[in-house]
Design a protein that fits this description.
The complex is a heterodimer of chains A (138) and B (113).
Chain A: H1 8-32, H2 41-46, H3 55-63, H4 67-73, H5 76-97, H6 101-115, H7 120-136
Helix pairs in contact in A: 1-5, 3-4, 3-5
Chain B: H1 3-12, H2 19-31, H3 36-41, H4 48-58, H5 63-68, H6 71-79, H7 81-84, H8 86-112
Helix pairs in contact in B: 1-2, 2-8, 4-8
The chains are: A mainly alpha (138), B mainly alpha (113).
Chain lengths: 138, 113
Amino acid sequence: MMSAGIHKSKLFYLYTILLLIVGAAWLVWSYTAEAGQSICLFRHITGWPCPSCGSTRSILFLLDGQYRAALYANPLGYVSAVGMLVGAGWAAFDTIAGRQSMYRAYYHLEGRLRSNPVLLIFILLPVIILWIWKLMHT
Amino acid sequence: MDAQKVDMYLMAHSKYFEGHNIAMLRDAMINADDSKMIMVQSVSLKDPTMAIILSLIVGNLGIDRFIVGDIGMGIAKLLTCGGLGIWYIVDWFLIMNRAKEVNYNNVITAITY
């Protein structure tokens, strides 16, 4: 998505920071909310959980030090947590150092995946397996 | 390339490209060598209609973004359950143009390499 006049790299960091802020705000809100709020439209419509259902709870468990519960709620919580930390740290590093290493790394990696769609299996297969496991244990 | 062949290609594939890119695409194709036509024909184009259908049905899982090649965004969308539902809706409006943009980029790349 491009806006006229803003360089693509700056947009990348802008969206990253925006995503992190929204994610953090969501975590704070979930932590202080009374009961678990499911914003998953998929779940509302079909009644079945989507692959990332429970990841919010998972991250909250992680913050609480309950690693087993976090894994059981949704292993993807670990992925999201690591992603947020790496994203924040790397973006901060790039901003301070005046470099664009994260931007370049991201698009390099994406380019590799685009030209080799078969590699996507390594990402999608675990997700599908996780989803099936989750559906069976609802 | 032969202008008539170029026009035929563009007419047959007009729905795959954004309007404002068609003129540039036509110029690039006409100025390119005839041998590039094979390259252009072999570019796999993403169907914008399919993209928006996927966006509406399973957009929460980021599948629409995976289809247009935005792997990173697809993963982010999947992990955040459609960006807390918001990105899910936003993409309904973005995905068709994104698919067309990707098509344009891919064809231009095929011509210029």
